[in-house]
Amino acid sequence: MTFRQRIHVPSVLAIILGGGRGTRLYPLVKHRCKPAVPLATKYRLIDIPISNCLNSEIRRIFVLSQFNSRSLNQHVTRTYQFGPLSRGTVEIIAASQGEDGGEDWFQGTADAVRRCLRYLPATRLTHVLILSGDQLYTMNFEDVIASHEGSGAEITVACKEVAAEEAPRFGIMQTDNEGMIVDFVEKPQASDDLARVRSPSGTYWASMGIYLFNRVVLERILRECDGMDFGRDVIPYAVRSDYRVSAHAFNGYWEDIGTIGSFYAANLNMIAADPPIDLFDPYWGMYTRPRFLPPSRIQKSTIESVLMADGCRVTGASIVRSMLGIRSVVKEGTRIENSIVMGADYFVPEHVETHLPAMGIGRNVTIARAIIDKDVRIGDGVRIVNEAQRQHADGPGWAIRDRIVVVEKGAVIPPGTVI
Question: Which of 56, 124, 202, 238 has the most C-beta neighbours closer than 10 Å?
Answer without folding.
Answer: 238
